Amino acid sequence: MTMHLTLVGGGGHCVSCIDVIEGEGVYRIDGIVDPALPKSSKVSGYPVLGDDSVLASLIAGGSKFLVTIGQVSSDSKRSSVFDRLGSLGAEFVTVISPRAYVSPRASLGVGSIIMHDAIVNAGATVGKNCIINTKALIEHDTVVGDHCHVATGAIVNGSVQVGSNVFFGSGAISKHGARIPSDSFIKAGSVCVGEK
């Protein structure tokens, strides 16, 4: 049975998420909630349903949710929307691209999305409301906290501990076993040795 899904946030990240959701074929996207967009508009062919005032009725109607707000400079908007939906009783989905690999020995938190060609290897744990973006690698036994964005082509090597609310930039590479504190911003293309 196809499950109904509402997306919250209608920007560029939403467009990428739609492509992954359609590829997975598990959910039927009913529309997008975004107060910055006109209700009559569409995102990738899906209707904008309105602003936050429609959330309670969508939850009552049984829709599931995915936060599709991007995360670069700060996770504050993405995490606050996730927390607000949770306080309203929303049920979140976890989305995995059919072009990604997630080990059966890995663990994914609710509300996270694994984008095209990403890899989450054995023993890895990804927290809730995370973005593991296109071609990112989460190696064995690594823990990624809640509300993190591991950006395109990034490599988080084995046994790394990534705190919550972390942005790990495109093409960045971590040292094996690094400890990356919560709220860190790892620049694109950098080598991250973490804390000792």
Structural topology:
Elements: E1 3-8, H1 12-24, E2 27-33, E3 42-43, E4 46-50, H2 55-60, E5 64-67, H3 76-87, E6 95-96, E7 101-102, E8 107-108, E9 113-114, E10 119-120, E11 125-126, E12 131-132, E13 137-138, E14 143-144, E15 149-150, E16 155-156, E17 161-162, E18 167-168, E19 173-174, E20 179-180, E21 185-186, E22 191-192
Parallel strand pairs: 1-2, 1-5, 2-4, 6-9, 7-10, 8-11, 9-12, 10-13, 11-14, 12-15, 13-16, 14-17, 15-18, 17-20, 18-21, 19-22
Antiparallel strand pairs: 3-4
Please provide a written account of the structure.
The structure is a single chain. This protein has helices spanning 12-24, 55-60, 76-87, and strands at 3-8, 27-33, 42-43, 46-50, 64-67, 95-96, 101-102, 107-108, 113-114, 119-120, 125-126, 131-132, 137-138, 143-144, 149-150, 155-156, 161-162, 167-168, 173-174, 179-180, 185-186, 191-192. The chain has 196 residues and is of the alpha/beta class. The strands form five sheets. Strands 6-9-12-15-18-21 form a six-stranded parallel sheet, with helices on one face. Strands 3-4-2-1-5 form a five-stranded mixed sheet. Strands 8-11-14-17-20 form a five-stranded parallel sheet, with no helix packed on it. Strand 3 (42-43) and strand 4 (46-50) form a beta hairpin. The longest helix is centred in the N-terminal third of the chain and has 13 residues, at 12-24. The chain starts with a strand and ends with a strand. The model has no long low-confidence stretch (mean pLDDT 95).
Describe this protein with a few key phrases.
30% strand; 196 residues; alpha/beta; five-stranded mixed β-sheet
